[in-house]
Amino acid sequence: MNAVRPVTLLFALLFxxxxxxxLPDATLLLQNGRANEALQVLNSQVRDNPNDARAYNLMxxxxxxxxxxxxxLRAAEKSVALVPQESEYHQWLxxxxxxxxxxxxxxxxxxxxxxxxxxxxxAVALDQAGKNLSARAxxxxxxxxxxxxxxxxxxxxRRLADFIMNQDPAxxxxxxxxxxxxxxxxxxxxxxxxxxxxxxxxxxQYWVTLAAFYHxxxxxxxxxxxxxxxxxxxxxxxxxxxxxASLLLASGRNxxxxxxxxxxxxxxxxxxxxxxxxxxHYLLGLLLEKQGDxxxxxxxxxxxxxxxxxxxxxxxxxxxxxx
Length: 323
Known about the structure:
Layout: H1 5-19, H2 26-31, H3 35-48, H4 53-65, H5 69-82, H6 87-103, H7 106-126, H8 133-145, H9 154-165, H10 169-182, H11 186-199, H12 204-216, H13 220-232, H14 239-251, H15 255-266, H16 277-290, H17 294-307, H18 312-321
């Protein structure tokens, strides 16, 4: 009897391995805005393997979507502590620090600015192959936006744009546009944004970048025209749809068009990490609420919370329309 037990146990374990459902891919859950499921999977992964740096990085990014900056920061710090030589982990840690600064008061923010700069610079320094262009774009953005006394440096931003020009001319022109805009040269800024558009092959992403520039400079008719162009332009993913609707909402223009655009975005096979499905539902709710349709708005806020129950903006919005 005892002799057959190990064999029986072996077959039982093999059977369980076959029939046990595999955990969903956390990266896909993140990209599709299914925050509740993503956190469930990632928490399970780090319980089983406390040294899973990739899981902590993904967890940080889910919390980033949820605007839970302290949680995002803690998870990002954990990923960097576990694998300190990974460029992407330092980049996300810098982003989390940056959002923490935006959410905190000026005094708290001052103590974190150096960390933002240091982590972005570390992300770039670790990228020996020169492939992490988004880290260089993030660092350039810091150099453009930060005051000189806090590490801002337009010259360094231009050098980064020069490096990126060899691999992604559209992104390089976009960075140069931000430099010119920050220096209040709107004419040269517009020229650079249009150069980015041309270099990209008229991608929708860069029509929206141009539209955002027009929004910031108060040229709302031009903004809408650029958005219209973006809707028929080729695109790599759906994020230009999300960003176009966000611009229309922020500018108080063409709410029905923004609603239609978000419906189109949500109908895609996959949404983007930078415009999660739950955030799209939340924006839809805001647009419908502004048009006086409280019931439909509440439905969109509930749809957002079904995907991301801890998303506070949707919680507060649902409470507001449910009074």
